[in-house]
Design brief:
The chain is an alpha/beta fold and about 210 residues long. It has helices spanning about 15-30, 45-55, 65-90, 100-110, 115-125, 140-150, 165-180, 195-210; strands at about 5-10, 35-40, 90-95, 130-135, 185-190. It has a domain at about 5-40 and about 90-115 and about 130-210: 3-Layer(aba) Sandwich (Rossmann fold). It is about 55% helix and about 10% strand. α2 packs antiparallel against α3 (about 65-90), α4 (about 100-110) packs antiparallel against α5 (about 115-125) and α4 packs across α7 (about 165-180). The protein binds thymidine-5'-phosphate (TMP). Thymidine-5'-phosphate binds near residues 97 and 105.
């Protein structure tokens, strides 16, 4: 195996993973460790455009299958245009969300089924899975309350879903973590943000040190 890692950050809404990722990248830079940080849906122009469509709160008519296909389309473009070339160049890649988000949000939350969503994603990106995934686990009611209290920028179409949807998402993540304990590492995201950052830093330092 080449000496670089593809690591994804996952979790329900309001778990703080985006803030954690930002802080971790700054720390890695201070330690002169080169990583590529990116996000889904988005990360490159075409996928950011798809993101605008998927998350637009006005598009309440969007069918669940359309939603799943658009996430897969954004993922495919982002993966082949940005993630894969970076990995091939020997960079570590840290990605805010990836296929697990589709498995749980569309597969479980939208009831399309994890296997159906896995299949369309196999068409989109093949069978490449992250080397490690950090799951920021949080009770959805806490996450949604955090969003309502703190977020001034983007309130997206999925944030507006009912609590029951987000509970299915969380259950989906915990189920995946049980099925793949080697890949998915759970962090308790109900802790204060600085503690979540420290816990993540501890895990990443070990992972990257091994390389
Ligand atoms: P973000 O708020 O973490 O940037 O993610 C955008 C939203 O998109 C969030 O509500 C989770 C959702 N999402 C899916 O439903 N399926 C996916 O495959 C991805 C990548 C995100």
């Amino acid at each position: 195996m080449v000496g670089n890692l593809f690591i994804t950050f996952e979790g329900p809404e309001g778990a703080g993973k985006t803030s954690v990722l930002k802080s971790i990248v700054e720390r890695l830079q201070r330690e002169n460790m080169e990583v590529l940080a990116t996000r889904e849906p988005g990360g490159i122009e075409i996928a950011e455009k798809i993101r605008e469509i998927i998350l637009n709160p006005a598009y309440t008519a969007m069918d669940a299958r359309t939603e799943a296909l658009l996430y897969a389309a954004a993922r495919s473009q982002h993966f082949y245009e940005k993630v894969q070339p970076a990995l091939e160049e020997g960079q570590h890649v840290l990605c805010d969300r990836f296929i697990d988000s589709s498995l749980v949000y569309q597969g479980m939350g939208r009831n399309l089924g994890i296997e159906a969503v896995r299949r369309i994603n196999e068409f989109a990106i093949g069978t490449r899975m992250p080397d490690k995934t950090i799951l920021f686990d949080l009770e959805p009611s806490i996450g949604l309350a955090r969003i309502a209290a703190n977020r001034t920028n983007e309130i997206n179409r999925l944030d507006n879903e009912e609590l029951a949807f987000h509970e299915k998402v969380r259950e989906g993540y915990l189920q995946l973590a049980k099925e793949e304990p080697e890949r998915i590492i759970i962090i308790d995201a109900s802790q204060p943000l600085d503690q979540v950052i420290e816990a993540t830093w501890g895990i990443l330092k070990e992972l990257l040190k091994e390389k």
